[in-house]
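Onboarding guide, step 5: your first structure request.
Type a short instruction followed by the sequence, for example:

Predict the 3D structure of this protein.
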Amino acid sequence: MPNILKKLSTLLAGLTLMFGSVDAKQSENVETKKALIVYFSHTGNTKLIAERAQKELAAVNYQVDLHRIEPTKPYPEYGDKLKDLAKKESENDNCRPEFEAINVDVQSYDLVLIGTPVWWYKAPKVVLSFLEQQDFSDKEVRFFITHGGGPGSCISDMEIACKGAKFGDNIDVYGNYPGNGEIDYEKVAPWVEKMTNLNNQ
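The system replies with structure tokens like these:
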């Protein structure tokens, strides 16, 4: 009897080792994809969407890097001064405000998400400053925008700036301002699910 138990114990140990090795190999073969989220947010609404998108991507095993575009010269607080400056910038096609350096290589990511509020029915010029300095060749790029009155030409402005990119479904989210958290999050999860399913095919 002791010999039989010894043999059974050896057999079970061998099976455990064998199946454990298979699981380890399967785990090693799972490729973690990388996503980059870069956003500009002045009152906080776009920041909330960016963080929600980061959470949804992480839930489906994406490694996510999150960066905020910060103008070198800060914009005024929300109010008439900001509105006047934003309008002035929107009317100047050559305006490209400087921004704090963001050390990223767009080409090293499988998926790139760009987020911004809509200013005067256009993309804020500081966002275009960032986009025009990147290499988006053959990268999967998606946009998310927040607004209080409509998307205007914001997405098409950014598409023009992302030369060579591959575009897909975007979302625009209505939100009360300034940054009080009353944001419609319902669009984020299905949007992320759709883009990651397509990206995994």
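Each response can be followed by summary notes, for example: The chain has six helices and six strands.
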